[in-house]
Write the structure tokens for this entry.
Amino acid sequence: MGEIRATDVVTAACDALVAGLDGPALRILAACTRAEADYDVPGLLPPALGELGLTFPAVGSDAGQEAVVRALAARMPAGELTPRELAFRVHRRFGHDLPLAERLAELDDEYDLLGLGDRTPARVDADVAAEALRLVARQPGGPDGRMDASG
């Protein structure tokens, strides 16, 4: 989703090997040098994730864009983004064109209109937080625990 560097993906692959996960594609990904990472990671990541039973939606696909929204939403309750940052980033990236992201885009617009009505920053923050939790709770994969690997 463009949120982390390719070298961080290589580090995560190394961590996965240390944690006991294994597979040929995962080993190849973990063996990338810093110089190779930017070029090689995009092609190596999907098969490595497949070995781990994780899905990797195609970049730019509807499923891929929705996975990005959910991954960003998960960063807010984890304390990595404030509600305002989440709404702004989703709105900037997808505008009002992605149905899954529409509520967050609307809430970003509400931040811009604070002071013109009776809405308070705390109320908009609470609405963004509720939407983020709704998006995270409705992760694809269902009860078998499979998650997407968009992050």
